[in-house]
Amino acid sequence: MSAFFHSSVAGRLNTFAAMAVQCLLLGHVSSAQADIELTGKVILEHRFFLQDAAEPRQGDNQTSILFEPEIYTQWNDGDNALLFKPFIRLDEQDSERTHGDIRELTWFQFGSDWEVKAGMGKVFWGQTESQHLVDVINQTDSIEAVDGEDKLGQPMVSGTLIRDWGTTSLFVLPYFRERTFPGIEGRIRPQLLVDTDNPIYESSQERHHIDWAARYSHTLGDWDVGLSYFDGTSREPFFIADTSGAAPVLRPWYLQMTQIGVDLLSVVDSWLLKFEGISRDTSEGRFFAMTGGFEYTQVGIMDSVMDVGWLMEYQFDDRDQSATGPGQNDLFVGSRIVFNDVDGTEVLLGYVQDLDDSSSYSAFIEAGSRINSQLKWSLDAWFFSADEPTDLVYAFRRDDFIQLNLEYYF
Asked: 147 — phi, psi (to 5°)?
């Protein structure tokens, strides 16, 4: 184990380790205090990369441990609550991936038709499977997973009003969090290293710019409708090449933006119809992007207990090749297989094809099942292909990998 904990990393982890010990100690007294609940998970993860790395300092295997407890307490007959969810990962290969975060540390005040919360929080907006264009509150923790689903905690104050005519939420976001990126020894990263120590901001207030957002949602007939607005620092950076140092690097450039978003979901028999669209305005121009499609589920396929869902979504971004994401004119197809067994076994298969370039695609497999009431295994695999250096997927062309997780829940 000593080889796993490099001495250069150990000092950075003392604070995180102390926090973890405190969480565990709290678990010993939780049984005596019914108003405090301690749950969480510990995950042992290993990635096998299927091709030699593009750079010699990158390895072919990557092992890490994740610790994510969750502490919840409530008082005043449930009118007040506190949620604390720290996050710690130790990675043997990439020192940048060894990191800690407070995913959530949120105080809640509940009323009969309203809610106020403050602290470090997480908010999810969106309906589609292949990407979430409208989800702009939290910053992406991109060293966690390639799909962009993992998010950093966001300082916020928010209020929600729930009425018959819909649900309205307002958010004040007083501090910006920069996106994480792999280090020199990490894989699944841009060809040039990202210099996270020297970001560039359009706002003179930099990370202290106060952002704000709002969302209205309601059910209209068969449709769940969401309308959102965001004004502040874009969570999605551009990159500027910096050649002033010994080696060229990319500096993240965070623009100010306003974004209007729409998300829709409709359930029609065995069909789920999904749509997300945004109009975003920055100093670099205005653009429109959307993702839309369906999921059709066959229940009890071939007289079995299994359900099989078929997914298809189209991704469009009118910036074309200047888009900051790969989905500028792409088609996603996939299948969700639910075994409906006692272990909750599920498999999700996906394939995204660039309709402008037949050589550019990505594919993934996600699978998982319980071993017992506390143990679970999961498998994630990603495959990438691109021939053109201007393609965003090109940087990952040698990073096909299979990831195995052993997950313990408490």
From this structure: -85, -5
Counting every residue written for the chain, the total comes to: 410
> Is 244 strand, coil or helix?
coil
Tens of pLDDT, residue by residue over 15-67, are 444 444 444 444 444 433 448 999 999 999 999 999 998 888 898 999 999 99
Provide the CATH number for the domain around residue 277: 2.40.160
Range of the domain at 322: 41-71+106-409
**Which neighbouring-strand residues pair with 52?**
none
pLDDT tier for residue 343 given thresholds of 50, 70 and 90: very high
Is the residue at 80 inside a domain?
no
Question: Which pLDDT tens digit goes with each residue over 145-181?
Answer: 999 999 999 999 999 999 999 999 999 999 999 999 9
Place of tokens 């195995």: 404
Q: Report in angstroms the alpha-carbon separations of 364 from 147, 336, 380.
A: 10, 12, 7
In a domain, 28, yes or no: no
| Mean of pLDDT values over 60-89 | 96
Q: 53-60 contacts: CB < 8 A, separation 24 or more?
A: 53/187, 53/398, 53/399, 54/191, 54/398, 55/184, 57/184, 57/185, 58/185, 58/186, 58/187, 59/93, 59/185, 59/187
Alpha helices (H) along 305-378: none
Q: Which two tokens stand for residue 223?
A: 């449709």
C-alpha span between 38 and 28 (Å, rounded): 9
Residue-wise pLDDT tens digits, 302-325: 999 999 999 999 999 999 877 888
The domain total for the chain is: 1
Closest CA to 340 of 373, 367, 307: 307
How far lies 108's CA from each of 84, 163, 216, in Å? Answer: 12, 19, 20
Residue 280 in tokens: 């975003």
Question: Average pLDDT, whole number, for the chain?
Answer: 91
